[in-house]
Write a structure and sequence with these properties.
Elements: E1 10-18, E2 40-43, E3 50-54, E4 56-60, E5 64-65, E6 83-84, E7 90-92, E8 97-104, E9 115-120, E10 126-127, E11 146-147, E12 155-160, E13 170-174, E14 180-184, E15 189-192, E16 204-209, E17 214-223, E18 226-234, E19 244-247, H1 251-266, E20 282-287, E21 290-293, E22 296-299, E23 302-309, E24 317-323, E25 326-328, E26 334-336, E27 358-361, E28 366-368, E29 371-379, E30 396-404, E31 409-413, E32 419-422, E33 433-442, E34 466-474
Parallel strand pairs: 11-15
Antiparallel strand pairs: 1-2, 1-33, 3-32, 4-31, 5-30, 6-8, 7-8, 8-9, 9-10, 12-13, 13-14, 14-15, 16-17, 17-18, 18-19, 20-23, 21-22, 22-25, 23-24, 25-26, 27-29, 28-29, 29-30, 33-34
């Protein structure tokens, strides 16, 4: 497809509702030989669907940040100066409302305020209802959820598990270090499970994998360059596999991290870490939310680009946190997307802007119409000198950024003619769509399986051109019906 194109700036985010469904590739993992599902979009994050590519470039698209960020601010005593989230909002069909759980700093002690609960009808305007469950600051007028036996437990992950029995409809992971599963019927009062702790340092993410029917937890442990991502799996939310290393910073990440820190230090519009020790520059992976999207696992790794060790008694490291893109077909082998550029970048400093020093993504995007909405924690600094108490040293809130549907990456053409070929695929249905923006025009042809010979009647001159901006443009030829290709490898 898209074998030749007139000079144009091509924006191809995905092949939508692809009805061609079998790709054989002996040089790839065994997963690559599995049939592709009819109706499943094929994204360009990796090379899985691609054959030849000529004069086009894979480009990462950054979500557009909401103009009135943050959408949830710390405005209660139990919030402290900073609130953060790690899990995206859950839609409760029964109540017709979005639900979100976050954690605050509460008087300078991270996690001591438990988990705050908020709800929204539109995903933008959020309220914090008084739950009356946990006493804090001398009263129960707060929105803190209760963990039985641990009233102020650090509840970092809460999500709605719609397939679970009523008593465990809501799942949670509690604990500032290591992780304990907990369940709830209403998302407000949780009961910890009497099971072994899941090993992890102070960062993790969790989701339910509908493809493999399992719970997936990505925790933080030390790896080759420091903080790294490890994988634990469970079928029942009680017994978890031992953590296995799946994602860590490599040598090229070290070079890019040093380059980025130097760019930040040289830019007066960016927040610049007060600690700048070039000999101690190091890039690590703080955490990585993972979600399943159109049969592909997408990761949002938080790259911690360290600028050096913070003086005692604070210790730890200074630097910046922000989000990049990765993808996988099996949760274990991961591809860094494109040129490894930042997906959700830090903002420049301005009045009221809080996501200038750290960005940590929620567990997944949520679909709103023709957009994907990414919620993330945005914090103004990593470390503010002369304020050694945790919680006093930074301010932050929960932010929102919006992306075109399927628009993680695209294949861009330049001023000269270029093309994108798919690998040989077996066509087993009647329609084919693309998600594209063409400033000029897009043309397509169908070739036999080697890609060298165009099938009669399926050439560029037979093609009904696509122009303009389309989320779902149907590919059509003048005198041909795609059902004629049924069963063929093309």
């Amino acid at each position: 497809m898209h074998r030749r194109s007139r000079p144009l700036s091509l924006w191809l985010a995905a092949l939508v509702s692809v009805a061609c469904v079998e790709t054989r590739a002996a040089d790839r993992q065994s997963l690559a030989s599995q049939p592709l599902a009819v109706g499943q979009r094929q994204l360009f994050l990796d090379d899985f669907i691609l054959g030849d590519v000529y004069r086009v470039k894979r480009v990462i698209h950054q979500p557009v940040k909401y103009k009135d960020n943050p959408v949830i601010r710390p405005d209660r005593p139990t919030d402290g100066r900073t609130i953060e989230l790690r899990t995206a909002p859950s839609w409760d069909e029964r109540e017709g409302v979005w639900k979100l759980w976050y954690f605050g700093t509460d008087d300078g002690q991270e996690g001591s305020g438990g988990s705050g609960y908020a709800r929204s009808m539109d995903g933008v305007h959020w309220e914090k209802p008084n739950l009356g469950l946990v006493e804090s600051h001398g009263n129960r007028n707060n929105n803190i959820v209760l963990v039985n036996g641990e009233p102020k437990a650090f509840t970092q992950h809460v999500f709605l598990d719609s397939s679970a029995p009523p008593e465990s409809r809501y799942k949670a992971i509690i604990g500032p270090h290591d992780r304990r599963p907990a369940i709830s019927s209403d998302g407000l009062v949780f009961t910890p499970l009497d099971v072994p702790m899941i090993p992890s340092q102070d960062e993790s993410h969790i989701f339910f994998d509908d493809l493999q029917k399992q719970y997936v937890l990505t925790g933080k442990h030390n790896g080759p360059f420091g903080r790294s991502v490890f994988l634990s799996l469970s079928k029942d939310y009680r017994e978890w596999s031992d953590p296995v290393l799946i994602y860590y910073a490599d040598f090229f990440d070290q070079q890019l991290g040093e380059k980025y820190i130097r760019e930040v230090e040289a830019n007066p519009r960016m927040w610049r870490p007060p600690v700048d020790k070039p000999k101690e520059y190091n890039t690590e992976i703080c955490n990585m939310p993972v979600f399943l999207y159109e049969g592909l696992y997408i990761g949002l790794p938080t790259y911690f680009e360290s600028s050096g060790r913070i003086p005692m008694p604070r210790g730890n490291q200074d630097g910046t946190n922000s989000v990049k893109l990765a993808c996988s077909r099996d949760l274990r082998a991961w591809t860094r997307v494109g040129d490894r550029s930042h997906f959700i970048p830090l903002s420049e400093m301005s009045e009221g802007v809080l996501d200038t020093g750290q960005i940590l993504a929620g567990s997944r995007p949520i679909r709103m119409g023709d957009e994907l909405w990414f919620y993330y924690a945005g914090v103004d600094v990593r470390y503010r000198a002369n304020m050694p108490t945790v919680g006093e040293e930074f301010r932050g809130g929960i932010h929102l950024a919006k992306l075109r549907l399927d628009g993680f990456v695209s294949m861009h053409g330049g001023d000269e003619e270029g093309f994108v070929d798919t690998r040989p695929v077996r066509f087993d249905a009647s329609r084919l769509f693309i998600n594209a923006t063409a400033r000029g025009r897009i043309r397509a042809e169908v070739a036999e399986r080697t890609g060298r010979t165009t099938l009669p009647g399926w050439g560029l001159d037979d093609w009904v051109e696509v122009k303009g901006d389309h989320l779902e443009a149907e590919l059509r030829w003048k005198n041909r019906d795609l059902r004629e290709l049924k069963g063929q490898n093309v």
